[in-house]
């Protein structure tokens, strides 16, 4: 077996040999230093790499909204929402011809007070208390000719002449104007709603038509009691007279 030969590594105290001549040369200081650098770890580490500088945009970033402006915007939105909800919840007077508007059959003066009661209920619900506005709304839901008559009444104006000569004009209230309107229609006033003649007429008409069913008898009794009750409450009819008139409308065999 053949033994392989190798050249020993130089050491700091050992001479370096020239491979071409085989002669050895004394180690120089430079060679010794190089040996120390390579094999004893005296080489200086490479300088750390510097990361590249990232490119920046020339447009500055938008400023973030401050907490003060955000809170003010939120309060404004909240107030607007509350105002919208309040406006939606506040009732409004219906337009003329609407199904919820008060109505009055002008051929039935007795129902005029009922018209004003329904109107005043809506006025209270809508918080309308100004006398002029109340008069205008009362005149809105009737026919054109009737509205022209109602608005032409002296009490419709804001000011009416004083009671005494030379006195300053006084403000006309809604109640004063309404009383003047009701006086234009006989039978519309509460004090003249019914008369005893109304009972006589009801009994006579019922007697002539005849009562043949329980329904007809019930209708006659209800109408009679409505009129008789009002006359009794206002002292215009006595109890004995009521019973006698009631029997006049019933045909007896």
Describe the structure.
This protein is mainly alpha-helical and 253 residues long. The protein contains nine helices and four strands. It has helices spanning 29-39, 67-89, 112-125, 131-140, 144-151, 174-182, 196-209, 214-233, 239-248, and strands at residues 16-17, 24-25, 159-160, 170-171. Strands 1-2 form a two-stranded antiparallel sheet. Strands 3-4 form a two-stranded antiparallel ribbon. Helix 4 runs antiparallel to helix 5 (144-151). The radius of gyration is 56 Å and the shape is elongated.
Summarize the helices and strands and which ones pair or pack.
Elements (H helix, E strand, L loop, with lengths): L15 E2 L6 E2 L3 H11 L27 H23 L22 H14 L5 H10 L3 H8 L7 E2 L9 E2 L2 H9 L13 H14 L4 H20 L5 H10 L5
Antiparallel strand pairs: 1-2, 3-4
Helix pairs in contact: 4-5, 7-8, 7-9
């Amino acid at each position: 077996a053949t033994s392989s030969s190798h050249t020993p590594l130089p050491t700091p105290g050992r001479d370096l040999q020239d491979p071409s001549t085989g002669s050895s040369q004394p180690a120089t200081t430079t060679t010794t230093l190089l040996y120390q650098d390579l094999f004893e770890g005296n080489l200086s580490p490479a300088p750390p790499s510097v990361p590249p500088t990232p490119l920046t945009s020339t447009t500055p970033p938008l400023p973030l909204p401050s907490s003060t402006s955000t809170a003010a915007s939120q309060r404004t939105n909240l107030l607007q929402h509350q105002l919208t909800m309040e406006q939606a919840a506040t009732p409004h007077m219906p337009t003329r011809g609407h199904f919820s508007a008060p109505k009055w059959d002008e051929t039935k003066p007795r129902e005029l007070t009922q018209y004003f009661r329904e109107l005043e209920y809506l006025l209270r619900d809508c918080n309308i208390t100004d006398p002029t506005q109340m008069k205008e709304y009362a005149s809105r839901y009737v026919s054109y000719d009737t509205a022209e008559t109602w608005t032409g009444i002296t009490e419709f104006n804001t000011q009416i002449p004083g009671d005494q000569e030379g006195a300053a004009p006084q403000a006309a209230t809604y109640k004063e104007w309404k009383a003047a309107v009701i006086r234009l229609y006989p039978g519309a006033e509460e004090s003249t709603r019914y008369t005893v003649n109304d009972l006589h007429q009801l009994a006579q008409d019922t007697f002539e038509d005849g009562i043949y069913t329980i329904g007809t008898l019930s209708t006659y009794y209800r109408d009679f009691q409505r009129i008789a009750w009002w006359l009794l409450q206002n002292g215009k009819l006595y109890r004995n007279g009521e019973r006698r008139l009631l029997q006049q409308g019933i045909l007896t065999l």
